Amino acid sequence: MDRLHGPARLMIVSDLDQTMVDHNDCENLSLLRFNALWEAEYRQDSLLVFSSGRSFISYEHLRDKKPLLSPDITVMSVGTEIAYGESMVPDDDWKQSLDKNWNRDIVLEETSKFPELTPQSEQSQRPHKVSFFLKKDEAEKVIKAVTERLKARGLDAKTIYSGGEALDVLPEGAGKGRALSYLLNKFKVEGKRPNNILVCGDSGNDAELFSVPEVHGVMVSNAMEELLQWREENAKSNSKILLATERGAAGIIQAIGNFGLGSSISPRDRVDLSEFGSKTLHPDHEIVMFYLFYEKWRKAEVEKTEQSLHKLKSLCHSMAIFVHPSGVKRPLKHSIDDVVMLHGDKKGKPFSVWVDQVYSAEIASNTWLVKFYKWELCDEEKYCCLTTVLLSLKTEEPDGLMWLHMHQTWLEGRGTKESSTWLL
Ligand code: GLC
Ligand code: MG
Fold this sequence. Notes:
It is built from eleven helices and 18 strands. The protein is of the alpha/beta class.
């Protein structure tokens, strides 16, 4: 992780299902709130880690459906696989370290003696993870017997029960908590141990995360019985672990505020959305605010007032050029005029806009180059463009940020391409 030159200001390590992604929240309201907060306030100097029970393939399926940001590190298959960056470079050292006293064949042989264990799909079985379904009322007895048998065969294996239905058998040294400790140790060696760490979870396989020394933790309000029981037995009086009153990603935002880890006001919670263009905004924040305004404009959730029209029309320099992803070049102000015309065209329809991996660099005095992915989710189709924007500080009155140039490109494998309806 060479992106940061020093320790991360905040490292969030979050489970996905029912934590970052609340499957009851069809409009992804909490997740989109989190995304806007992360990109506006944290992306540049903090680390986002997803730690899930899913395999990479099933993680990709979730990414296809949900507006998930790109994490810096992905920990998959219940802490048995670690990958870095956008291109997900696997950590082979970690994988190798899990081979110690682990033998998959013996695990399969021993577990096959328990008719109560129903193997999960082939896709959920991984080199260091053997997974089953197991009914709640049989769990305690079966887990005890399986553990004894594996020990008798000389294996260092452990079992983790989650969601009142899933049993994972892993090497003793694996699991979400062990994987996090491994990562923290790596950062420590480089002198980059994050200043603050917040772990977030909802079910049994997350429990280990909360035992990692010196971390803050949040159990979302919709946490499962087995995690609540773990808290009761292990962490009831630990003031660094919060049982949120909010579900999913809203619980994560709540914890950031509760522990004073940084700003916990998502741009999506702001009343005045026409803040873009203002001098006080950091360029990252500018991009988030503009696209938030754009979504709300098209959904008619912001009013078409004199003031908001003026805001839009003074966004870009009169000479600013926009290179549309189709390759067509046009004045940026023409695209802004199109936006103005489309006030309310998505009213009452499922339409969300978010930005991912917003990075800005001050390339000259008061001039920034901002790079990000701009996403739209519309009628269950996702569209994405790699975007670069050149911003500068206006010198004339009223001062603020001005858009000088914009360039977008469709990327292979990232969402659908739709030139005729893609605005900017
Ligand atoms: C995810 C995985 C599954 C695992 C469960 C609990 O649902 O897909 O294989 O058993 O998490 O860790
Ligand atoms: Mg979960």
